[in-house]
Amino acid sequence: MPTMTDAPVPRLRYVSDDELPEDLRNRRDPVTRVFGHHPELLKAWNEWYRPLIRDNALPARLKEIVRMRVAQLNACSF
Hints:
By secondary structure, this protein is mainly alpha-helical. It is built from three helices and no strands.
């Protein structure tokens, strides 16, 4: 049975300014560059993600442990 590390690593393409709605152009953050071509998806992501990160729903130490584990499970190179 193949493991997660045996699978090819998918790469997400960042959208260009031309592909973004005008109000999102010139933003360089990765989330906007991946989800920005679909404004409803970007809005839904922010509504889910923002409270976890900015509203201290989880302690900072736990968030970092989760980030590291997710990266490890996905063979994230950064």
